Amino acid sequence: MVLTITKTQAKQFILIKQGLLGKHRFAGKEGAYQYVRSAGCIQYDPVDVCGKNAELTLLSRVKGFRKQMLSELLYKDRRLIDYCDKELAIWAREDWPYFSLYRERSKAHGQTFAGIPELEIQAVSYIRAYGPVSSDTLPIEGTLFWHSSMHWSGNWDKESKAARSVLEQLYTDGVLLIHHKTGSRKYYDLAEKYLDPGLLEAVNPCQDEAAFLSWRVKRRIGAVGLLWNRRSDAFIGIDMNNEQRAEAFDSLEKEGKILPIQVEGIRGFLYMLSEDLPIMETVLKEKADLKPRLEFLAPLDPMLWDRRLIEALWNYHYSWEIYTPAAKRKYGYYVLPMVFGQELIGRIEAAAGRKTNTLAVKNIWFEPGLRQTKTLMNALDKTIQRLARFNDCDLISREEKHDEP
Q1: Beta strand extents in 254-293 (DSSP E only)
Q2: Mean of pLDDT values over 50-62
Q3: What's the mean pLDDT in 32-42?
Q4: C-alpha separations of 341 from 225, 290, 371 in Å
Q5: Can you give the pTM of this predicted structure?
């Protein structure tokens, strides 16, 4: 039996699942960890205008979140790992065994490049003797032709710095982990120092590529909340064609891991995780906590991974314009969507001035016809103040025009 719901119920379900509506579902460092577990992974991006993407993703959901919490989870507690998934992503260390097939493919890929196997032995020996290194401190000179296995479809080689190439190859092989970052510079160390043998040697729960693909598809459905069996940016990083995707959905549904949902006004089915049925039931029984919060979403926020779905449910068009030429941008270089209650109400462009300790609010665009009530504007002010504190900014400069697009 297929459950039929309204668009309003679909939006409520996604927002509650995401931890963006009602009381905070996640709090503190433990809450940050639990959200990543819930989403499967969050995307890492090094651009830092008013916080990096992963940090902003957690700020919108985790009560009391601070940047240091994510750093500690990654590089002190080692409960989270930054590694390939949806491009470069962050996920829980418990998932390490699932990616063994990925690492095996990476190792085979690395062996196809002349010079890499010999350099790997040299690099591992040096790191074992001297500890964490970056591409600038590893004493390997020269260049070679190499490209990362993160881009499986790439049929191209380019000459690159040998030290950087061998470190990235060992990283995707799972031999190295990121020890820490200084800005966007990565320092690597041996994975065996930080992951116990039981985890390193654990048997992959996915026995073949089809099972691994289904597991990854299931994670992406859980990350968004509701997702359809269509081509989607939500599946970036998963090497599969339309037939393989359909087989994964069919397998997951037959196993009872996902449930089909018919949303009124949307053609075809959306799917949710069976484990999220209690959240859906609170929505259908009108017992959900719908107290509105105003949050700024990260540009690569999991909720926004399928832009066509966002447009279908919220009538909100979203495009990240960071790589769009300035003259062609409709909004700005680094713009954050705004959610208030059950609606996406607009977007904000803000930048943290590190030298002046000032958060500059460059512009705010509200969706057409939105009533700018006192409640809304008070909530907006509080969220801007929270973003300023998050970036250690004592001052806020307000330049916004409150435009409609």
Answers
A1: 258-263, 270-273
A2: 98
A3: 97
A4: 17, 7, 13
A5: 0.94
